[in-house]
Amino acid sequence: MKIPTTTDIPQRYTWCLAGICYSSLAILPSFLSYAESYFNPAFLLENGTSVADLSRFERGNHQPAGVYRVDLWRNDEFIGSQDIVFESTTENTGDKSGGLMPCFNQVFLERIGLNSSAFPELAQQQNNKCINLLKAVPDATINFDFAAMRLNITIPQIALLSSAHGYIPPEEWDEGIPALLLNYNFTGNRGNGNDSYFFSELSGINIGPWRLRNNGSWNYFRGNGYHSEQWNNIGTWVQRAIIPLKSELVMGDGNTGSDIFDGVGFRGVRLYSSDNMYPDSQQGFAPTVRGIARTAAQLTIRQNGFIIYQSYVSPGAFEITDLHPTSSNGDLDVTIDERDGNQQNYTIPYSTVPILQREGRFKFDLTAGDFRSGNSQQSSPFFFQGTALGGLPQEFTAYGGTQLSANYTAFLLGLGRNLGNWGAVSLDVTHARSQLADDSRHEGDSIRFLYAKSMNTFGTNFQLMGYRYSTQGFYTLDDVAYRRMEGYEYDYDYDGEHRDEPIIVNYHNLRFSRKDRLQLNISQSLNDFGSLYISGTHQKYWNTSDSDTWYQVGYTSSWVGISYSLLFSWNESVGIPDNERIVGLNVSVPFNVLTKRRYTRENALDRAYASFNANRNSNGQNSWLAGVGGTLLEGHNLSYHVSQGDTSNNGYTGSATANWQAAYGTLGVGYNYDRDQHDVNWQLSGGVVGHKNGITLSQPLGDTNVLIKAPGAGGVRIENQTGILTDWRGYAVMPYATVYRYNRIALG
Do 43 and 131 belong to one domain? Predict the structure, then answer.
């Protein structure tokens, strides 16, 4: 029998037992020198019947064989939680393995990437036979932590299949559970007798591989002598994956692909290759919308005529990084409505970088349906669009496409190439024939050049730099859809009458066809001295000297934790009379740089900061604002900011805002005031998931979401998720999971 150590028994018995042990050793040295301790298992039964084999417990730290659910890691990459069969072993599988060896069959090893054909003996094994990985694959290792239920295996790279990093085989994909989904966002503003509200929703049903979605918005305004209310159905569609084609099928409302032609809205059918189904595919990017608000302002962003984002921003520079455009292409029209009545308008070019395909890969995109736009000045002609890209040897990519409609025909051919250290480029030519609203016919060509490059040595990143030149007779499908040659779009009031104020960002004049356009997005790292960035576009037109120009130049840096930035913005547009240039300065000083606990963020004071911003526009209007902000609560999910300042128009001004990122949604409230007016604004957003076990409320949903079920574990945090807790039943929703990839989720 094994003698227990002093840590196995209470402390008060230690000295007594030690005395007994020493006496035994003195009396019976010969017995202890030649015999092992042994416990007869027959003592457990009275009738002398046989008992289970308990010999493995005599060696200590040994666990029974069987099936265990473990977190499986291969070459430091998380594969997922798996039920693995373990057998007892004397081989080295780690100090904490409990004497267990995982039992893998050939099918499982191939599923996690092992190239079984490279090992003849392994290839001859039966699929259901237990394989010892240490013997089958030279230099493979196994490390099992029984207490943590974590299994780490390493397989030499030469023994793995030549699939891309992160590849998940289709048989591992999960279509998800049947569910009802609702994503909502509600903002409101009340002050000085004016009320305005904006509500947007994205609802849907998931049944097997099918996804039904509806996206809509509601605008309401009362004040200044009129009343307007409007519901916009942005889109309704059914979507599903076509796995054999690695593609997605969309029926209903959507947007065309933008790899080749500019994206446009449609109501019809689209079948396109899905990059998400490919490993290491280019996922594209969502643009960052930057700007300067002189006062507390309402920010509105439109794409293809639809409002896709609306919120309230504090005075000073702002960045919108959580934007989710309805299309991967289509310029973003930004409107900033200041409290003093001024309005800023500018357009941010938004298109993908040159998309190069691996050799042998083919990508297609087919769309047929009616043209669809949120602009009431446009009609809905039927059209067909087809595009294709193919990867060629020597890192070339050939691509082409066509757009066909009753009054429009366009053909495009292009070639792209990876230049290695010199970046990536693409060049294409489009020939188009058009019939416009006045029945005039035109024919022209357009040449487009795109370039992208990241020079890590110099810290320079050309995210996108492009140039397009078009002859005088060149028009796009979007141009042909206009009902009139020139005009604005107007809002409608409650009685259906035109308002006096047009939506000036939707101005068009087909007599001024596009001539040449330069766009760029460049950032430059200065190492310890911060970074510079410049974004902008310059569009010229035929038959006029006017042009659209929008540029932003910024500098950001920090010193001993104090961050500061300088931003210059310049925008002017054809048809928009009030062009503006504005320069702004922003400084943020964390309180913890003034304490001995620098950068620790241990309490609310350490997480607080002081801020200052000042700006001046081309009309000589100045404003400045100083404030204090920070985060509260244990999860740091309540943020606040209070400020006071002065403007040259309205004198003193101030604001107070708070945002709470809760388990069941997010809530933001704000109060703004100046010499002439005051108002209150709020924002409420969240998600609702209906499933077979009930309804679960959540933070705003993403495209891919995970329902977490942990009965009896109410109020438990989800690891690495801000503000997300299980509800009283043990349910929670984790939004923004990665589609067609393993997602690791753990309770905190």
Answer: no
pLDDT winner (highest mean) among 32-41, 112-121, 409-418, 454-463: 409-418
Q: What is the 3-state secondary structure (H, E, C) of 350-404?
A: CCCCCCCCCCCCEEEEEEEEEEECCCCCECCCEEEEEEEEEECHHHEEEEEEEEE
Number of residues in the chain: 748
Shared domain check, 96 and 76: yes
Residue span of the structural domain in which 48 resides:
6-55
Query: For the segment 692-746, what is each residue's pLDDT rounded down to a tens digit?
Result: 999 999 999 988 999 999 998 889 998 888 889 999 999 999 998 888 887 878 8
Is the entire prediction scored with pTM above 0.85? no
Question: What distance in Å separates the CA atoms of residue 486 and residue 471, rounded to the nearest whole number?
Answer: 20
Q: Which residues contact 374 (CB under 8 A, 6 or more apart)?
A: 232, 234, 265, 302, 304, 305, 306, 307
DSSP codes joined into one string, 83-137: EEEEEE-SS-S-TTSTTEEEEB-HHHHHHTTB-GGGSHHHHTS-TTS-B-HHHHS
What confidence score (pLDDT) does residue 119 get?
78
Query: Distance between alpha carbon 221 and the CA centroid of its chain, in Å?
Result: 32
H/E element, 538: strand 531-541
Phi, psi of 297 (to 5 degrees): -140, 160
Burial string for 606-624 (b: 16+ CB within 10 Å, else e) reads bbbbbbbbbbbbeeebebb
Of the given ranges (263-267, 517-521, 727-731), which has the lowest mean pLDDT? 517-521
**Pair (153, 290) in one structural domain:** no
Both 35 and 120 in one domain: the answer is no
Q: Which amino acid is at 259?
A: D
Q: Is 371 exposed, middle or buried (0-12, 13-18, 19+ CB in 10 A)?
A: buried
Residue 283 — φ and ψ, nearest 5°? -90, -5
